[in-house]
Amino acid sequence: MPRPQTLTRAGLKTPKAAAIAGVVFAVLLIIAFWLFRNAIPADPLESGSWLTTDTWRVNLALNLIPFDGIAFLWFIGALRDRLGPMEDRFFATVFFGSALLFLAMLFAGAAVIGAIVILSAAEPEALVGSVTFHFARAVAYNLMNVYAIKMAGVFMISTSTVALYTEFAPRWVALLGYVLACVLLIGSSYISWSFLVLPGWVLLISIHILIHNFRSRTSAEMT
Q: Which of 33, 34, 216, 217 is most enclosed, with most CB atoms within 10 A?
């Protein structure tokens, strides 16, 4: 009887796949957010003068967002595969649901910004300072800086809880996740760079998984 084949090669299985996907997600999101911050003023009530200048930073960030989302989905799937039967249904639902909602808010906000850039290229004088621009700008701001960040905080809380019970990450990383998640849920409106908290924390987890995987492989080769 032929052995069943798997869709994933052994070299791409967790934890290495989760770590690599987490690093890619963190790096791409940090770059995209840095480009947004350098091109678009933080004030959602700004006049939109940045649309009349070079918008290449915004376009580059918008092109990075889809790949960032793909890496995040891969990271989530690889982590869930690593947890396997240890995954609790309740926390798995919150973990997976908050991650999808975060991506949905991120994509929707990026789509609104992309629509603003496209319309400004067609009619720059009519859009800048108009009611339509201010409405779209406020929608993008709320989607990415309010709702997406709150969902990021919920994702960090659920992931930290799973990490405490399954020990797929150190205890101090999980406790740090709780603290940073509280910052996002309560004080994100007062911290302009709060969007970097989630990718920074995911990068920390990914680096730990890579180091742990390397040490385990080294120990196995020595024995």
A: 33
